[in-house]
Amino acid sequence: MGINSSFERTVQLALFPRSTENTTNQMKTNLWKLAFLAIVMIGLQSCGGDDPTPDPPKTPEQLATEALTGTSGSQAWAVAGGGSVNRDGRPVTDLYASFELILNSGSSKTYTSRNNNDLFDNNGNWSFAGTNFDKIQLTGTKPAASRELSFTQTGTNLTLTFTIPAPGARINGTFAVAGNYTFVLIKK
Q1: Same domain membership, residue 128 and residue 92
Q2: pTM over 0.85
Q3: Total number of domains in the chain
Q4: Residues 33 and 97 in one domain
């Protein structure tokens, strides 16, 4: 063993100590550092970015339009399936048993009515009457046209309430339709 081998041995001991206690402490320290780094990385990832901007609340007009036309912008309502029609408090459902009203929204608000017994026009436009968004008006020439139709929508029911006054309340000059109407329509 010469000087070189003694020197090499000293360097080896300095760089790679044999003490297991030293090695165990160093491993524990490294393990704690690694665990701390993992926790920090998980914490940073969970922060994420900003939450997306929530949709602005809907206006009363938008809510009323959705009540009439659904979220798709088109909704059919019918007497069939549990609806009813009363005129002056008396049932007249048999005259309108297959009545159907389809309301559409979009760039223009349109409607179509079927089996309407000439009380409503077959089609036209609709609009809100007033600023409370609880009444609509239908265009056309039939007795229900240009009247304020109050509406309430609850679940799958749409109730329309309106009055047709005596002047001009005849269909083809014979059938009188004057009165207070309540249509309870069912969502199709």
Answers
A1: yes
A2: no
A3: 2
A4: no
